[in-house]
Amino acid sequence: MVESKSVSLRGKNILGLEYFSPDEIELVLQTAKEMKNIISRDIKKVPALRGKAIVNLFYEPSTRTRSSFELAGKYLGADVINITAGSSSIVKGESLRDTLLTVEDMGVDAIVMRHKAEGAPEYATKVVKAAIVNAGDGAHGHPSQGLLDLFTIRQYKGGFKGLKCAIIGDILHSRVARSDIWGMRKMGIEVHLAGPRTLIPRFLFEEKGIFIHDRIEDAIENADVINVLRIQLERQKSGLFPSTREYARIFGLNEKRLTLAKKDVLVMHPGPMNKGWEISPKVAYSSNSAIQEQVRNGVAVRMAILTLILTGGKSNEITA
């Protein structure tokens, strides 16, 4: 198991990659590598978190994130409960504070939380003593996705220094984009952005070390990695771009545009995909695509996060 005398996440809240140091990111990635060995076994159970209780508290729909956190906790031997807004007292008008206090009174050790409001997980840290893991708060951040994206890039590219990554699409509404930008820059990846000007936050134009392009072709030229973002129609107001057909024509990643990147370019997408809009089906399922591998890596990274915050990652009961 990865151990460090100077770096530890034990007892810490996971709120955003802007709060991580490069050494802390490295600790998660190294731990996730060992966790991936565990989930490839026939018997995936280890007792690292035996006796620990984890609640997944999701105020927004999720398939990949919630399921992978649930599996991560169960593979590590923890007791895991899922609470969703539509099937709890939240629909009766219970406040976030009261829900958090109710969950804490049940004796939980960690709360994995997704909420539509930016800052909700940080607020939760002021209400309860249980460790809080941000599983997505509005358009602010999605740290576990950012970490699994870095883990996937290292798996295919061997490292980070000198790589060029193009992040394409709806950056304005994307918590994934923000976490990727924070994490990639800390690890030495050159970040290029492209999308409709209406979908790029103004503050990014003032950030040093970020290259913003009006044309997708300029962003992906000679890119080592392309991360395509989902068009988040459920968060958008009308008028941000003419139509999905027009968006696909100007900003969609297709086979022709892919040839502008390096031959071994790695294509990623946080999912779910709007195939035919932001990415063509042929690119999504091409030999360059790591989209399905991202799903597999998500479980390993989330196992690492839970282990590191609840035990410090030093349990002798974890073997790889």
UniProtKB/TrEMBL annotation:
Top EC class, one word: transferase
Domain Aspartate/ornithine carbamoyltransferase Asp/Orn-binding: from-to ranges: 161-308
Coiled-coil regions, chain positions: none
Biological pathway: Pyrimidine metabolism; UMP biosynthesis via de novo pathway; (S)-dihydroorotate from bicarbonate: step 2/3
Chain residues that bind L-aspartate: 92, 175, 230
Catalytic activity: carbamoyl phosphate + L-aspartate = N-carbamoyl-L-aspartate + phosphate + H(+)
EC number: 2.1.3.2
Binding site for carbamoyl phosphate: 64-65, 114, 142, 145, 271-272
The keyword Nucleus appears for this protein: no
GO molecular function: aspartate carbamoyltransferase activity
Extent of the signal sequence: none
Domain Aspartate/ornithine carbamoyltransferase carbamoyl-P binding residue range list: 12-155
Transcription regulation keyword on record: no
Keywords: Pyrimidine biosynthesis, Transferase
Description of how the protein assembles with itself and partners: Heterododecamer (2C3:3R2) of six catalytic PyrB chains organized as two trimers (C3), and six regulatory PyrI chains organized as three dimers (R2).
HAMAP family attached to this UniProt entry: Asp_carb_tr (MF_00001)
Chain's role: Catalyzes the condensation of carbamoyl phosphate and aspartate to form carbamoyl aspartate and inorganic phosphate, the committed step in the de novo pyrimidine nucleotide biosynthesis pathway.
Protein name, entry field: Aspartate carbamoyltransferase
Upper taxonomic lineage: Bacteria, Bacillati, Bacillota, Negativicutes, Selenomonadales
Gene: pyrB
